[in-house]
Design a protein that fits this description.
Radius of gyration: 22 Å
Strand order of the largest sheet: 1-2
Helix content: 55-70%
Oligomer: single chain
Number of helices: 20
Order of helices and strands: HHHHHHHHHHHHHHHHEEHHHH
Distance between the termini: 53 Å
Strand content: under 5%
Largest sheet: 2 strands, antiparallel
Number of strands: 2
Amino acid sequence: MKLFKPLRQLLKSDKSVILFLIGGYFFLSLLCFLILMLPFCRNNNISIIDHIFFSVSLVSTTGLAPLNFAESYSMAGQIISLFFIQLGGVGYMALSSFVILKRHNKVPLISAKLLRLEFNLPQKYPLLAFIHSVFIFTFLIEFIGAIFLYIGFKQEAVSQPLWQAIFHSISAFCTAGFSLFENSMTPFSNNGYITNTIMVLSLLGSIGFIVLLDIWFKLRQKKAKITLTSKIILLATFVFIVLPTCLIYSSDSNLQRLGWEGFRLAFFQTVSAHTTVGFNNHDLGTLGIPAIFVFIIVMVVGASPAGTGGGIKTTSVTALYAVLTAILKRRKRITFLSKLIPSSKIYLAIASGIFYALILIIGIWTVLIIDGNNFSLSEIAFECSSALSTVGLSTGITGTLSNTSKTIVALLMFIGRLGVLTFGFALITKSPLLDDNIETEDIAI
């Protein structure tokens, strides 16, 4: 393909591929910003920094908003925003690869490299099946979700129920968390039809296309069993929803006073935090510090690889747990579910956790210097964790942050969409391989 020939020399190194991926998302954010700046896209006069914040939040599918989204942008602006949410959630490389595949029946090596990097795919994973599954599952799930939401919004006598259903179905599956309602899903907290649909959509988006494809192959009897990756994701998703829900409910007296309704609210918000969808059906500003602390942990863990969510990812946390278990049991090999985990994946999981923590600490520290007198540590830590994990939940401080703090939070959202390791690889030049004869010396741990 002649179109890709000039890029072949440029993208020979892994670092060049990473920089190309970063440049792609930067271009999408810039394009979104320029379009939303057009007069027919906005209803009100919005500052430059808020436009930038909105653009990065849309492309990174985070959902943090400095202003009321529906009031800020016209119908044209909302439609354009939804396009960028879809592009950011599915991934621009997945879209371009799908178009190329349909035209030429194969994917160039460059596109394959970028796609595997964007979705953290294993090297031997069937790429063509993955590309097709991304678009088939995305269309079907969002279409069915829109039907259910349309029925729910019709029951609630919402204006423009069809548009509301389409927008929120895409926003939920892409784990974007943008809503056309002022208080997100709070007005429908008692409507199980709407809230359950939102939860199912966000869960399907967050578990990733690897799991969806594995289950589809299993149902069609093309596979005898699902992969270890899918098993880990499904188990971790269950654990990181059920356990935090119980902890949040038991640690907050306001939720406990509501009884079963309080538990249901805690469950929805835990799903929202874990899947990084960012919808809320309860004012998080009313929660106590213990519940906020649990939410921060859930957001940091985040969703699963090859999906639309952010965070460290459930597979990385599972690998770290496997390391801890192996050390405590004095095992030489690191296993999970009776399967040996490759050392390369263990190193990546450790690096991901360390680098994520480092970026988050720097982000929180910087915002504390700027706005520490205006907001508490828990509020700032929550906001930064939500941004870096592309969650979109907030205790209500986003709009009142200073412009400098908004810029920092926007940068965290951008890094979160790329993945902290992708960002780290771009910063650090690859060093030459170490000599095998290098001296080894033990250290105290």
